Amino acid sequence: MENPDDSLMPAGFPNDAFFKEMFSDPPRAIAFFKSHLPPAIVAKVDWPTLKVLPTSFIKSGLQQVSADLLFNVKIGGDDALFYLLFEHQSTVDPSMPLRMFGYVFEILVQHHKEHGLPLPPVLPFVFHQGPDRWNVSTAFEDLFKFPDDLAADLLPFLPKFHHALLDLTRYDPEQDEDRHDLQSILQLMKFARMKQVLSYFEWYATKDLIIGEILLARLLIYVLHVDSDLDVEQIYRSLSSKSEAQKAIMSVAEKLLAKGRVEGRSQGYWLGRIQSLEEFLNLPQSPRETLELLTVAELEARHQELHREYQRRFK
User: Which of 23, 40, 142, 225 has the lowest tally of Cβ within 10 angstroms?
Assistant: First the structure.
């Protein structure tokens, strides 16, 4: 079924915004890289120096990347850059090494303009949400075709380049992640791609995870944007037994329960969505009685404004 919010969202929303919000948090990004980079690199990185850099310099001549993060970190006292790209398109892209090479090239050109030589190493990392397994090469040289008898002579002329990859279709966060927040986030992204977010909350309810009310509230907000047909009452019932989830559910899900199910996707539907987004963005809460005076069209317009603000903050 078509998501009625799609016309209000930029391409990739809410996945792009959710990804950038979750992984622009330095402690969480550090934990992620420690889990997925080669141990020899992990051991040498000065992790407390990691910081998020802007990626706005990537030129419009390349494909605009709406869900990427660039990090600066020290390795052996020198700068290094980690480039993390979120890939959630419906099909696997065989040209990904070429795309990544283009992004890395732009990063290095910009660095050279600002700082000169030497250039920092750039570690490109693709985060693939699915739904299909990543079954193509991550090596740049594999994009080329040339006679076998000339391979040894031609390969030295090609850039030696490949990108790291986390393929969620082959990854089990519950077994492979130690941190509760990463387990919860990555597992939700797996279930969201399979359109089984209710199953995610059934899974969450059986686990002894401690992630805090703030993160749980953000997971709920993301879910409500991913699936507008979500049975909020079911989520409420499945999680209400978990004490740490009570406040998050009261502040997010119950706003939809209050009236949205009675009035369908008319005024009550938009009331719940508006109040949830306002709280999520730490904006002053619009009194319910004030919102009830607005027409459905006016409520939709207010909802669209909040979506734009959400995108602006986490772009």
Answer: 40
With H, G, I as helix, E, B as strand and everything else as coil, classify residue 86: strand
What backbone torsions phi and psi does residue 81 show, to the nearest 5 degrees? -125, 130
- What are the sequence ranges of the domains in the chain? 6-170, 196-314
Residue with tokens 């979500």: 230
Q: Counting beta carbons within 10 angstroms of the beta carbon of residue 282, is it exposed (0 to 12), middle (13 to 18) or buried (19 or more)? A: exposed
Report pLDDT for 101: 94
Strand order in the sheet with 122-128: 45-53, 68-75, 78-87, 122-128, 164-167
For the chain (length 315 residues), average pLDDT per consecutive 10?
33 75 95 96 97 68 66 96 88 93 92 94 94 94 93 92 94 93 95 87 88 83 77 70 66 53 57 77 83 82 82 65
For the full predicted model, state whether its pTM sits above 0.70.
yes
d(CA 194, CA 192): 5
The residues, any chain, with a CB within 8 Å of residue 18's CB and separated by 6 or more, are 189, 218, 222, 314
Query: CA–CA separation, 310 vs 13, rounded Å?
Result: 10
Structure tokens at 17: 């915004």
Q: What is the pLDDT of residue 133?
A: 92
Question: Which string of b and e fits 239-258 if b means at least 16 CB within 10 Å?
Answer: beebeebeebbebbbebbbe
The residue count for the chain: 315
What's residue 154's pLDDT?
94
